[in-house]
Write a structure and sequence with these properties.
By secondary structure, this protein is α/β, with parallel strands linked by helices. 44% of the residues lie in helices and 14% in strands. The structure holds phosphoric acid mono(formamide)ester and norvaline (NVA).
């Protein structure tokens, strides 16, 4: 593994090895990143990904350099609109740094970066994927249920980056994955077919429905994310209307198994996709997920940079 751009690029045992290394480095920190410079390039805001990962890198003796995305990433085709090409910035950065951690709008930007960089590129979230979140969520599920139990996990809401990576990792680890969301903002046929194939290959299951109450029945965990992702602000009003029936509230949680857990990658919009009573309940694991964002960053950068 040279880069980490998606969950899909990794086999389940590779993902488990990253989690195992993360736990080992968390328990007994070693200066494995001593003398290493990790470049952070963020086109969008971040709390957990940016601070959690910087803290992880500091714990392992490494150094973070924050870069201006407008300087590093070519955003315009016209050479005079953009400062310089990604090809040139990646070649230069590769001579000074040991890895790049990038949060971008378009997944294609990460692919270009990885093509030209001679150092690992790690996806800190893009429009289609959020692999670091998925790793932290899998660690959280393993801490809650152990490694052997098949968990019934239902994602309620938008067919977005977080949902995609979560579904991929949960299917690769053999879980019973369900999805519910409004028809207008649903997976494509190709994506549904991909989830179905992953399930067949990994002895897991994938089902989906437009009916939230049906989806959460017999679920051990309910997961949601914002209904309006970064970059979609112009669609807010229209999206929120379609997503109203998909709010995770006490009534929806009652349809799930007794004691079902609640997960959210955060930031949460309280009163929109989730109510206070659910996110503040003792069965809400959102802060454990956030902590695990730091933990899995140790394994990922420890693996890629040494
Ligand atoms: N979950 C997550 O990625 O949070 P941030 O956007 O704050 O990094
Ligand atoms: N789906 C959200 C996740 C934020 C961590 C977004 O892309 O804005």
């Amino acid at each position: 593994m040279n880069d980490l751009l998606t969950v899909g690029q990794c086999e389940a045992d590779q993902l488990q090895s990253l989690i195992d290394l993360s736990l080992a480095l968390e328990e007994k920190p070693k200066p494995v990143l001593q003398g290493k410079n990790i470049l952070f390039v963020f086109e969008k805001p971040s709390l957990r990904t940016r601070v959690g990962t910087e803290a992880a890198i500091n714990h392992l003796g490494g150094n973070v350099i924050q870069a201006d995305p407008l300087v590093v990433l070519e955003t315009e085709q016209d050479p005079y609109e953009s400062r310089e090409s990604i090809k040139d910035t990646m070649r230069n950065i590769s001579q000074w740094c040991d890895a790049i951690f990038a949060r971008v709008y378009a997944h294609e930007t990460l692919e270009q970066m990885a093509d030209y960089a001679e150092i690992p590129v790690v996806n800190a979230l893009c429009d289609k994927h959020h692999p670091m979140q998925a790793l932290a969520d899998m660690l959280t599920l393993q801490e809650r249920f152990g490694r052997e139990e098949k968990v019934a996990l239902t994602f309620v809401g938008d067919a977005n980056n977080v949902a995609f990576s979560l579904i991929e990792i949960a299917l690769k680890f053999g879980h019973d994955v369900r999805f519910t969301g409004p028809e207008k903002y649903y997976w494509s046929q190709d994506q549904l077919q991909y989830f179905g194939l992953l399930a067949v290959d990994h002895g897991s299951s994938f089902t989906h429905t437009f009916e939230p109450a049906e989806a959460v029945k017999n679920s051990d965990v309910i997961y949601t994310d914002t209904f309006v992702s970064m970059g979609e602000e112009h669609m807010m009003e229209e999206k929120l209307n379609h997503f109203k029936p998909y709010q995770v509230n006490g009534k929806l949680m009652e349809q799930a198994n007794n004691g079902a857990g609640f997960m959210h990658c955060l930031p949460a919009h309280r009163g929109i996709e989730v109510t206070d009573e659910v996110i503040d309940h003792s069965n809400s694991w959102v802060h454990q997920q956030a902590r695990n964002r730091m933990v899995v960053s140790k394994g990922v950068f420890g693996w890629l940079c040494t």
